[in-house]
Amino acid sequence: MLIQLQIVVSGRVQGVGYRYYAQMKAIQYGITGWVTNQADGAVKIIATGTKENLKVFIEDLRRGNPFASVDRLEYHECEHADTWQSFTIKY
């Protein structure tokens, strides 16, 4: 069964390739959705996948890439209103 999460990641996550990192991990785990920068310096992600795949995706997001520093990661399940065929970076 697929679930959809809204994830907000704070810290040094803009200007360090974090959105690209999130996209690569999402593709690796078969997760669809999108990632975008927020005005407050955070990164917002909408991710749809299996519970198991989302769990390892979140673990990787907490770790971040070598240039990022994740201070906080919050997520909650949201209504599965939209579906995507891929995982994209929104600009």
UniProtKB/TrEMBL annotation:
One of its GO terms (molecular function) is acylphosphatase activity. The keyword Hydrolase applies. Keywords: Hydrolase. It catalyses: an acyl phosphate + H2O = a carboxylate + phosphate + H(+). Residues 4-91 form the Acylphosphatase-like domain. The active site is at 19, 37. The keyword Hydrolase applies. PANTHER family: ACYLPHOSPHATASE (PTHR47268:SF4). This is acylphosphatase. It comes from Mesobacillus zeae.
